[in-house]
Amino acid sequence: MTRVVVTGLGAVSACGIGADALWLAAREGRTAVRNVSFPKLPRQSVPKAARITDESFEMLLRGAQVRFQDRAAILALAAAREAVAQAGLTDADFGSQCGVIVGSGLGGAETIDRNFTKFIETPTARLDPMSVPKTMASSSASWIAMEWGVTGPTYCISTACSSSSQSIGLAADLVRSGAINSAIAGGTEALLFDSMFACWEALHVMTATECRPFSLGRNGMVLGEGAGVVVLESLEFAQERGANVLAEVVGYACTNDATDLLRPSAKGAADCMRRTLQRSGLKLSDIGYVNAHGTGTIANDQAESQALREIFGEGLDQVAVSSTKPIHGHALGAAGALEFIVTLCALREQIAPPTINFLDVDPRIGLKPVPNVALPFSAPAAMTNSFAFGGINASLVVALADRPN
Q1: Which domain holds residue 215?
Q2: 15, 211, 293, 328: which is the annotated catalytic residue?
Q3: Which one of 47, 163, 292, 324 has the minimum C-beta count within 10 Å?
Q4: Are residues 110 and 256 in the same domain?
């Protein structure tokens, strides 16, 4: 079976522009969650989110076509450019043997928000004539394909918070099957706008204080935005090009709880991790770090910790587990890709980033993640989880490419 490797990373997040900015913030436990305000939301009850700074976004606009691109597509293209540049792909490497799989939970939220606001305030006003192509969830994947002339399979996976993890997993499967030589894969999300934020407030899952996954006193998640993109290749293709291999994708699986649209299932999460590990061919003891979905909500953290205990048993105490969402925010459709990048970097440096804001172990779940300060570990592989609304689960296992067999 063809081995699938990662040769390029790209990210845009509230932590800054670039995969390095994301990883350094995660490793150092430096949060990008800030006070935000929404002028058209007079009763805003959640004061914080992980929003990309205006200065960073201004830099991205220099290479954008704002007439035709929503904020989500602009972020995706910036992340893809970084990943493709690091991979060293040339014009000859694209075409029909390259694919694009880039997901988004919603798509063009900025355009949706602006147009409906304009329509409500001034019904006779002319709306943006490019609204439809800008709001399509698949827009980002298409822009990436056009940028490099990728004529191979192109998909937009839209499965809420697991969108980009499934995108990376599906891309890896396509490469592993021999259907394509390489893929540009990941996800993007940008919905920190008045009407969208109001909808999330109405759901009552966000914290008004601090996001503290798995901790005693946790009371909700914090929204973020961003894009994460990786370049995947068959090992043979990467070696032929003389590419620098960063790591290997050895396991991926997805499951559906099929029980509840919003309440997570420990069984579904455990089934997903179990299948992923079976496909990887690794031993449980090979996993030294798990980047948890870890939203900081009471129900999610309880279900995930139960699932982790079911999979790892007593060995869970020897695995470094953390959630980095309090640092870069929950970027929804982009979350899995951002966390995949963090997981890969953690594996390469053998440093588990911390779960910041952690207070104490919740006796109801009995899990102590890496608390507040990064922790060294020694292992050849790491796992990252994405457990989404709709009961859609995805897990990925990444391993050191030069690990001993």
Answers
A1: 4-241
A2: 293
A3: 47
A4: no
